[in-house]
Amino acid sequence: METEAVARQVESVERSMVFLRQEHLALLRGLHLEILSLQRRCAELTCELNLKPPGRTQSELDQEEEELEARCRQAEAGLREQQGMLGAVRRELGQRGALADALRVALRDEERRFLEELKRRSHRAARLSGELQRQNHTAQRLSVQLRSAHHGAQRPAPPPPRPRPRAAAPAELTCELNLKPPGRTQSELDQEEEELEARCRQAEAGLREQQGMLGAVRRELGQRGALADALRVALRDEERRFLEELKRRSHRAARLSGELQRQNHTAQRLSVQLRSAHHGAQRPPRPRPPPRPRPRAAAPAGPSPWCARRGPGSACPANA
After folding, report:
1. Which of 106, 107, 118, 150 is surrounded by the most beta carbons within 10 Å?
2. How far is Cα 132 from Cα 209, in angstroms, rounded to an integer?
3. Residue 121: closest CA among 5, 223, 238, 271
4. pLDDT tens digits along 257-303
């Protein structure tokens, strides 16, 4: 009976040992997993501590807030200054455009007046040329008359042929005598020659005067043409300079606009940082709760199987 009781006790102890071993293995596995999770969490916290700046005091936060506000004010002042410069550039571009338009209108008016003056001078030159040709024809005709008068005075006129006698009425003879010019003396011929020479000299003087006037008109037309060309070249140069200045001012306005946008982005970023600093200073960080340890299994109240195998007389560390 005692042997059966001991055997049953041994079997119960062995079953208890198997159960305890399984529980111990499960507990070791859970502890190992918990250790791994704690190691990962420790590594994450270490990384966060390395990356996150150290905690700042309220004075440091106030100082940083003042610096951010100063930078915001400086950015706003630069923004206003850039806007003023951009407005000044736009006003100057408008003034330059108005000046270019006025110069263009003045050049058109000057060119129109020059063309009208050129047309009027061309008509005057044509009229003077016609008058000059008429004076030339008059001078040639007078020269021919003068030469013919010289030849007529130097060579005696041949005697007229004798007319055949015929009976004529006294009235017809009186009419012929009245129509026939009387013979001119040498003094009359010299006087007529002097008059013709004076008329020739007068015609030559008028011809020279008209030639001088025509040359003056041509020189004035050349001067007006040179002045118009110079004005045209000056207007082209002014227009080219205005276009270059406009292009340069446009690039400057684009650069200022880009700088303005960057200043706006910087001001917005500083405002966001300032708000985040305010919120971070007002709300303290919540501490993370530590992980709860898993409950360990309690050991059985009876003797361990190791002590039972060694015998009832042996010393058991559990009983000790």
Report:
1. 107
2. 10
3. 223
4. 777 777 777 777 777 777 776 666 555 545 555 555 555 544 444 55
